[in-house]
TrEMBL record:
It comes from the Bacteria. InterPro entries: FIST_C (IPR019494), FIST_domain_N (IPR013702). Residues 242-372 form the FIST C-domain domain. This is FIST C-terminal domain-containing protein. It comes from Spongiibacter nanhainus. Residues 40-241 form the FIST domain.
């Protein structure tokens, strides 16, 4: 059994966080629970490897935390203030002294109703307003956890964004270690597939949303000339088989197509001066390509050039500190392709040092959420400052 990794703040802490690398689900749940014992939680959020026995893990968490709201998801890798992990569980607790929360589940995304989701979130928002610690509009944010194989993120996020005017939303799509078979959301003491969990958080603490990437656009373009938007599959670029055109523009061979090369050779949609990354998930037997995010016929994709990920992320986090002070926690959603990139470029230790410095807890995703956007290859999250009275 691995030693417990945990850290809590000082007396009257606002946040506690912990993790476990035990492969035994019951032991892992106990070690996470022990790591979060420094606060009276308003809620607990965790991120776990898909390989755990989920029935056993869910049962253990329900027994340990009782009536405390516990939410979570499976991942493509876990992040704690101790660094990047695989095959583990990591999580955090928000203290009831400093946060109030409202949670809800959107089940069965296959029959998702925008009107139903809008009404559900509005009701949750009304409950939050009834018990808020500070004015809701200026002092609240929303967190989302979505089944990463549901192919419904864009529809769900659009409905959520409409229901939460002025309240920022950040989140991530659950993963399964790049198997692309089995992603899950945990809510109300059980795991669900094809579902989304939403957490509304109100606090007096200063916070700020983080969202961005380190990539820059190149000159080469690919036009989607045949696609199945509902399945996020591109059959043709430039009227040629998608995989062959992708290989041509990236300068790689067909037999080199792999998760690693998809991570190292991203594409993007350009809207004005903004670039929204669209990463390839996998190549199919018919030479079509499945994407992580929305894709459709007629879209023009730009080849992206990798930049200086570590330096860009460090600069971004320095701006966060200038805005809200040293963070108590950064709830982070980091694309799995960024993790593959840092591993491929031997930058993992440098990134882990930043995770530790800025107290980042989160997971490697199949897509990142920022308001109504569902994108790839970004770090997206929310940083919460330590002090209620930090000058803004």
């Amino acid at each position: 059994m691995m030693a417990l990794e945990s850290q809590t703040m000082a007396e009257h802490a606002a946040v506690a966080y912990g993790s476990s690398e035990s492969q035994d689900a019951a032991v892992a749940a106990t070690e996470l629970f022990d790591g979060l014992s420094g606060v009276e939680p308003a809620c607990v959020i965790f991120f776990c490897c898909v390989d755990y026995n989920r029935e056993e893990l869910g049962r253990a968490l329900a027994t340990l935390f009782g009536d405390i709201p516990v939410l979570g998801c499976t991942t493509a890798g876990e992040i704690s203030p101790f660094g990047m992990r695989s095959g583990s569980i990591a999580g955090f607790a928000l203290s009831r002294d400093h946060f109030v929360v409202e949670t809800t589940l959107l089940p069965n995304l296959a029959s998702f109703s925008e009107r139903g989701a809008f009404d559900t979130i509005k009701q949750s928002l009304e409950r939050l307003e009834d018990k808020a610690l500070a004015p809701v509009g200026e002092n609240s944010f929303a967190l989302s956890l979505l089944d990463g194989l549901s192919v419904q993120e864009e529809l769900v996020l659009s409905a959520l964004n409409d229901a939460l005017p002025g309240i920022p939303l950040v989140g991530g799509s659950a993963g399964d270690n790049l198997h692309f078979r089995d992603t899950h959301i945990y809510y109300d003491k059980q795991f669900f597939s094809n579902a989304a969990a939403i957490i509304l958080v109100n606090t007096r603490r200063p916070f700020t949303v983080i969202h961005g990437h380190h990539l820059t656009p190149g000159e080469e373009k690919l036009v989607v000339t045949k696609a199945d938007a509902a399945k996020r599959i591109v059959y043709e670029f430039n009227a040629e088989p998608a995989a062959l055109e992708y290989c041509r523009i990236m300068g790689i061979s067909l037999d080199e197509l792999s998760t690693r090369n998809f991570a190292m050779h991203p594409l993007s949609v350009q809207v004005g001066d903004n670039t929204f990354v669209r990463s390839v998930q996998q190549v199919n037997d018919d030479l079509s390509l499945t994407f992580f995010c929305a894709i459709d016929t007629g879209i023009v994709l730009t080849k992206m050039k990798n930049g200086r990920l570590i330096e860009e992320f460090d600069q971004r986090m320095r701006r966060v500190v200038a805005e809200v002070g040293d963070p108590d926690i950064v709830i982070g959603y980091d694309c799995i392709h960024r993790r593959i990139e840092v591993e491929d470029t031997d930058s993992s230790e440098a990134l882990e040092a930043l995770y530790r410095r800025y107290k980042i807890v989160g997971f490697n995703t199949y897509g990142e959420h920022c308001d109504a956007m569902h994108v790839n290859h970004t770090f997206t999250g929310v940083a919460i400052g330590k002090y209620d009275d930090f000058p803004l």
